[in-house]
Amino acid sequence: MVKSSAPSRERIVAGAADMISRRGLSATSIREMAKHAKAPLGSTYHYFPEGKQQLATEAVRFTGDWVARSLRKELEAGPAAGLSAFLVLWRKIVVESGFHAGCPVLAVAIEEPPADEVPPALAAAAEVFEQWEALLADSLRAHGAEPEQAAQLATLIVAAVEGTVAMCRAKRSTEPLDRTAEQLQALIATATGN
Q1: CA 134 – CA 178 distance, rounded (Å)
Q2: What are the residues whose beta carbons fall under 8 Å from the beta carbon of 10, sequence distance 6 or more?
């Protein structure tokens, strides 16, 4: 059986996520996302007939699901392990890209949307952040944190890590991740009584 040389839909989405994580959404065209994924523009439009917003939305969901899978697995060992895995994942991305890539979900979230409109990619970013928060909050509650405290701490964790990734890129250093990790781990220990 002859393998098709056409790029897979998932490869295009992953390439778009990587491109958005490096340049943001506004500064990236669908043509550039296709080129980055080594995909013909025609194939890209075949999979994403609605264009850039559809591809960006899928890239955000792809990243959200990828991170959520890792979080779910690590949170089985508790919220401290989940946080460690979350930080390791972003550290790897930041370092391996030479501090050029961050989180595509954050990149989409900070884009200025057209007036009186919530683009699908922005709505997807909100859903992804909520998903990550829910996973963390569930683990915190399961390990002894009070429900409201768990929800607040989960939001703080996601916000702190996302902001820290941006700081690492700006400073060209992982020091912000180290500092944030230590403080968030202490908060988790206090909330769960460990």
Answers
A1: 24
A2: 62
Token readout for 141 is: 């509650």
The tokens for 111 are 């884009």
Of all residues in the chain, the percent with pLDDT exceeding 90 is 82
Q: Taking the mean position of all CA atoms in its chain, how far away is CA 89?
A: 10
pLDDT surpasses 60 at 21: yes
Gap between the Cα atoms of 154 and 69, Å rounded? 17
Please give the mean pLDDT across all residues of the chain: 92
Asked whether the beta carbons of 103 and 67 are under 8 A apart, the reply is: no
What is the spatial distance between Cα 86 and Cα 164, in angstroms, rounded to a whole number? 12
CA dist 140 and 116 (Å) reads 36
Q: Which residue has the tokens 């994924």?
A: 37
Q: Are 55 and 29 in contact (CB under 8 A)?
A: no
Among 44, 62, 40, which Cα is nearest to 52's?
44
Q: How confident is the model over 112-160, as pLDDT tens digits?
A: 877 778 899 999 999 999 999 999 999 999 999 999 999 999 999 999 9
Query: What's the rounded Cα separation, in Å, for the pair 156 and 129?
Result: 11
Q: Are 101 and 14 in contact (CB under 8 A)?
A: no
Q: pTM value?
A: 0.91
**DSSP for residue 29:** -
